[in-house]
Fold this protein.
Amino acid sequence: MHPTLYAQLPFLTLHVLLSLDPSPPWDFLSALALALISYLTISSNVLKLDSGAGSTNQGIGTAIALCVMDGFYMLLLGKPLRNFKYLGNGNGSVHKVWWKKYLDAVSITQFPRLIGWSHQVRVSHLCCITEPFDQV
């Protein structure tokens, strides 16, 4: 297996934990489990996560660190599957099927603009515009 494929372990862990939607005593433990898996992924001699290029290794480490920070926010404070509603399915309710919850968790973590969700990023925050939209 290619060494950089091991870098996906923290992301897969985050997706699974978000789709399980743990309650308060377990959300802290799941955030710690995500941090532990990320630490073992980065520093383990067993996995040998080395791509051979320093800049690639730095990018992988940065992505894993961002995954941990997103995970702590989403697991402890955000609760995205409870607070964000997907407006694409009509009623904006949380899915009951586990694989649809997993796909929602992937969508929330991998697409930060959240297009189609109730917590969508406004266009005015995406770029530097000197004039208001209604005058353009």
